[in-house]
Design brief:
four-stranded antiparallel sheet
Length: 212
């Protein structure tokens, strides 16, 4: 009888262990995980589409990578990526002007609250998402829908703004920087608003020439 009960106990423990295994990217997460990790059901963002996001802490041989990131629809991986993050934050915002919210996954942040994100653009039918290469290099990205451009406001010794655009799956950097704060060389403050508007006009013209 004792031997039977021991075998029964081992069978029970082994069965529980198998049930608690985490299947990354499948959506079948059946164990407790680090509170930094996120599983997000996106019904309020994409109603009726049965989309969820899994942003899970993971160990890699490459120490620069810290997480797996999956966008899952009806149990199928639309995206399964390996990323570097410290916050496991996710937000939704339209970055290509089609009215459909895209997915941003946190990459990094610094002491001055400059955040960078990975960007995944949603297709119109929400059957696919496309990662935009180089987007994670933009600090505090902001979409300018009127111009279909991206700007940023970076907090540093002197705050500054630059301008970008999405070209297919890659970021274009227009190479113009607008400074804010005090100009030590001229011993006067930058005229940020005027300089910003002038730079924006140049960028709009540069973007038009690229599209010809």
């Amino acid at each position: 009888m004792v031997k039977f009960l021991s075998l029964l106990l081992l069978f029970f423990l082994f069965g529980c262990q198998n049930q608690n295994e985490s299947k990354l990217g499948t959506g079948k997460i059946e164990k407790d995980f680090d509170t930094m990790s996120k599983i997000i059901h996106c019904d309020s963002v994409y109603p009726g589409k049965n989309i969820r996001i899994e942003y899970l802490e993971h160990e890699f041989e490459n120490n620069e990578l810290t997480a797996t990131f999956a966008i899952i629809k009806n149990g199928k991986n639309l995206i399964f990526d390996s990323l570097s993050t410290g916050m496991f934050a996710v937000k939704f915002s339209d970055f290509n002007g089609d009215g459909i919210k895209d997915v941003l996954a946190h990459n990094s942040s610094d002491a001055r609250s400059n955040w960078t994100w990975y960007l995944y653009i949603a297709s119109s039918d929400l059957n696919s998402f496309k990662r935009i290469k180089g987007f994670e290099q933009i600090k505090n990205p902001n979409y300018l829908k009127k111009y279909d451009l991206i700007d940023c406001l970076v907090m540093s010794g002197n705050d500054w703004t630059s301008f970008y655009a999405i070209d297919n799956d890659t970021i274009i950097d227009f190479g113009l920087t607008v400074n804010m704060g005090f100009n030590n060389e001229k011993q006067e403050y930058y005229d940020y608003d005027n300089d910003y508007n002038s730079a924006l006009k140049k960028v709009v013209e540069m973007k038009k020439s690229l599209n010809k």
